[in-house]
UniProtKB/TrEMBL annotation:
Principal EC category: transferase
Residues at the catalytic site: 463
Membrane spanning residue stretches: none
Listed name of the protein: Polyphosphate kinase
Biological role stated in the UniProt entry: Catalyzes the reversible transfer of the terminal phosphate of ATP to form a long-chain polyphosphate (polyP).
Organism of this sequence: Microbacterium hatanonis
Gene name of this polypeptide: ppk
Residues holding ATP: 73, 496, 592, 620
GO terms under cellular component: polyphosphate kinase complex
UniProt keyword Phosphoprotein present: yes
GO molecular function: ATP binding; metal ion binding; polyphosphate kinase activity
Lineage of producing organism: Bacteria, Bacillati, Actinomycetota, Actinomycetes, Micrococcales
Amino acid sequence: MIQDDALDSGLGDADDDDFDEAVEAVDAQLPENRYLDRELSWLAFNQRVLELAEDPTLPTLERANFLAIFASNLDEFFMVRVAGLARRILTGLAVPTNVGRAPQEVLADISADAHALQLRHAAVWNDLVRPALSDSGIDVVTWDSLDDGDRETLTEYFQTQVFPVLMPLAVDPAHPFPYISGLSLNLAIRVRNARTGRQEFARLKVPPMLPRFVKVAAGDRVRYLPLEELISNHLGHLFPGMEVLDHHAFRLTRNEDMTIEEDETENLIQALEAELLRRRFGPPIRLEITDDMDDVTLDLLITELDITEQEVYRLPGPLDLRGLFDLSKIDRPDLHYPPHVPKTAVAFQPAEQNGRADLFAAIRSADVLVHHPYESFATSVQAFLEQAARDPHVLAIKQTLYRTSGDSPIVQALIDAAEAGKQVLALVEVKARFDEANNIVWARKLEKAGVHVVYGLVGLKTHCKLALVIREEEGVLRHYSHVGTGNYNPKTSRIYEDFGLFTVDDQVGRDLTRLFNELSGYAIEKKFKRLLVAPLHLRKGLVRLIERERDNAQAGKPARVRIKVNSMVDEQIIDALYRASQAGVKVEVWVRGICSLKPSVPGLSENITVRSILGRYLEHSRIFAFENDGDPQVYIGSADMMHRNLDRRVEALVRVIDPAQLLELSALFDLAMSDGTSSWHLQADGEWIRRSVDADGRPLVDMQDKTMVNVQRRRRARAVR
């Protein structure tokens, strides 16, 4: 399908068989136990998130936000990764594992680690963050701590705002055990009939559309009561004539791993909608309960939900700390990170004050590399597409869309362009996990506006971040290209760290034209100049670049590999890095999440260093840099080093060639990998050790804060020039 010809200098495909045989011969000498378990590595990543919540030097409401992020991350891990493993075991399918252990053993280890992490998560809230909030004048209170006046006010709120939307469901011979939706917070209630003395069970769902924390009137302090506690103390209103014996909170996680056989369906959208409906009724995968739940209630839940003891997580309340997302938005600037307003990239600043920048003219002058969120998405990517939509010389716009919002100005720009009579192609990935329903809605909105909407290639997700504008200039068609590392989403662009390259280079323009033709039609184009494209040849291209560094090191030439990704899992890439390390190549890996590579193993990876950085922004960009004997080869793009990215997605990396931009990317790596920068260091046994202070206890450099300063400094320097 897709073949990369970007690596013409000794890295073509003519000698593929010899190259593969040589690699296999070397790999046969590598030890078998050379990978870390990917699932346990993911849990270690979420532990790093939790460590941020534990850090007393961070603003208190940001710590609460990290607790919510931890909870949300773990939910998705169970819904997808754990559920996928369990489903494969249940159906007898092969379970891929890179550590040579039985899947049941992996699930048992996941359960043990996850139990420990959830208990630690609850302790951080109860023992650290909640008291820290109280010290700052924000109290999360209990019903028993309230006075009569507060209770009277809250009872009125319950009667008018909560009671009407509650739906208690009895369980008896006439009422079967109700369906429990995934991730819903529920109360398990036992009541006794005053006339018959018979005990009954009822389930009550805590309404998700109401504020999770109810504000309590106060003077100079802000107080909040968890919604489930308000409801629990008014159960008598729901069961008149019954004696409420006991009540306990519980929460269920369901399998939401989706499987669609695209080659067996005639209509992808209809199949996807049916699968979304099925996902709501996926089998249970985790049951969270409060630690005071009695055995009678627990046994009933285990029996009715058909869940195992291993899948039960007994925790001190409150459950579902995703609710802290709302609490963390309290307007207390002193408890948040200092505000940072993204600046317009120097190249895209208007020539006159209050004027409108001509982005096409800026891109014609030179390639522009924009670093979000330090530099503005709105005045770069968004402005680029909005200018293209209204420019009468623009004939066509082609764009991939993986995740965005339905009210996005990006979507509106495409609609405006189509309504202005331009040719507009939107390649929408409707299979973007957990955004499927939203993507279907706004894909249909685009179609109604006259945009040509396509859904990519059968069996592959289109994950690359590409935009191409065709503009007529003096009778010649010119290609304006954007290749990014992150989604075309204005909202996440403010918290996700990403790069985007704008260029008018003909090679990139022709590459994107060919790639879009393949994605939207039947073209089979095999030549790319400045792109590396998955699924067929991106992995092989990167392996060849790594092998070239290995050859250079053996020849005594300068050699180094630097890779920044979200996840490092692919065994072929990892083995190539091991081979490079054995040859003396210095390898630096900067990874946010999962890493199956073992660094610092004598004879295998003693030249490999792995760092992780987490902070106010989510590190999301992917960078691949190779020393190449003094002629650096550097790529940015959307691909992580995972099987799904390299085998089952359309991904694209673009080569950065501007010397100043190469220096900028190199300086970023220097900062991230410096021992003077706060980061986590991966050990050979899979443990991550946080280094946030020096030997004298002084805080190390915060890379993201430093990058803000560096971007501002470059901005001022360019302005002076």
